[in-house]
Design a protein that fits this description.
By secondary structure, this protein is α+β, with helices and mostly antiparallel strands. It is built from 6 helices and 7 strands. This is Acetyltransferase.
């Protein structure tokens, strides 16, 4: 295959690019499932042990945008897979959506998640005509809370003691960002 020129590629910025999930991405999904503290923050639960079959099914299900949940692989500009991001909970009638992101353990703290969310916000607001990004973070998930604030989200409320994990109930912190708020910041 010819080398791809990414200079005019919509799905990139100065440090990352997004691409479709490929069936070969199952291995990264599988190994990330062994990071219980990170998965607990993401899924608000302890998951059952991962299986290779489940990981392969995940990659196959979301390859080539064959689902209503638009799943992307995040790569650095050298082509290394550093995580995943997805546009989900799309409500065309009301113009709302959510975004999920997971950055691999070795790549956290480098801004990749913030960059990936920013690319998807631009797409949702300026290409899909959506108007409101809604998201929540589990109490104690300081990385996600900081990232949501960094992209311009406003804390809109707290759903008190609604998630049970690790032997106690946790709050969900609710965040939101409108297209107008995003445009003011960017």
């Amino acid at each position: 295959m010819r080398e791809i020129d990414y200079s005019n590629y919509y799905w990139k910025d100065e440090k990352i690019k997004l691409r479709s999930i490929q069936e070969g991405d199952w291995e990264g999904y599988y190994t990330n499932r062994f990071d219980t503290p990170a998965r607990r923050l993401l899924q608000c639960a302890v998951e059952l042990p991962p299986t290779i079959a489940e990981a392969k099914n995940f990659a196959e299900t979301y390859a080539e945008f064959s689902s209503n949940r638009l799943m992307f692989t995040i790569e650095d500009l050298h082509g290394e897979n550093v995580g995943g991001v997805n546009l989900n909970s799309i409500d065309e009638k009301n113009g709302t959506f959510s975004i999920g992101v997971q950055v691999d353990k070795d790549h956290r703290g480098k801004g990749y998640g913030t960059r990936a969310i920013t690319i998807l916000l631009k797409y949702a607001f300026f290409e899909r005509r959506l108007n409101k990004f809604n998201e929540c973070a589990l109490e104690g998930n300081e990385g996600s809370i900081a990232m949501l604030k960094k992209v311009g989200c406003v804390q809109e409320g707290i759903r008190r003691k609604v998630i049970y994990t690790n032997g106690r109930y946790y709050d969900l912190i609710l965040f939101g960002l409108t297209k107008d708020e995003f445009m003011e910041k960017n």
